[in-house]
Amino acid sequence: RPPFICAPAAMRLTLLLALAYVMGAEAFAPTGASAFARASGTSAVSMKYSPIKAGVQVEVIAGDDKGKTGKVISVDRKPSKKKNGPFVLVEGVNIITKHVKPRARGETGKREQKEGPIHISNLKPVKAEAASE
């Protein structure tokens, strides 16, 4: 039986701290992107230094619109409870149709087409030279 199991609580804590010092603090820390997401409460995608900002030309690398390029309209960096992660609106990509009811008398209903949000991990910035060619 190892000696730290039988030892009093204060001694166990001292032994664990000494072990952590010898092995390095990383030995006791959780690893991986999911650990980062749990610790920070945000998506594992880092937004601090993201090159994807409004006005940048991007290419879709995953999803139904894979291969399409467009200009970023806006970036929503705050994750909500239902949607995890930063979302981006890209011009001409992920077009959704919204049916709008008539609001006043004599007005007819209509269908509006607008861009839907795409997760930032499904986009990559396109270099200026590649976009102009």
Entry summary:
It is built from 4 helices and 7 strands; from the N terminus they run αααβββββββα.
How big is the Rg?
25 Å
Class by SSE composition: alpha+beta
- The N- and C-terminal alpha carbons lie at a distance of 71 Å
Q: Which of globular, elongated, flat, extended, rod-shaped describes the shape?
A: elongated
Give the SSE string.
HHHEEEEEEEH
Strand ordering within the main sheet? 6-3-2-1-7
Multimeric organization = single chain
Low-confidence region ranges? 39-43
Range of strand content:
25-35%
Helicity range:
10-25%
Question: Biggest sheet: strands, sense, closure?
Answer: 5 strands, antiparallel
Number of strands: 7
Instruction: Please work out how many helical segments DSSP would assign.
Output: 4
The chain-level mean pLDDT equals 77
What report would you give on this structure?
With 133 residues, the chain is an alpha+beta fold. Helix content is 24%, strand content 26%. It has four helices and seven strands, in the order H-H-H-E-E-E-E-E-E-E-H. The chain has helices at 3-6, 9-23, 33-40, 128-132; strands spanning 57-60, 69-76, 87-90, 95-100, 110-115, 117-119, 123-125. The chain has a five-stranded antiparallel sheet, with no helix packed on it. The protein is elongated, with a radius of gyration of 25 Å. The chain starts with a helix and ends with a helix.
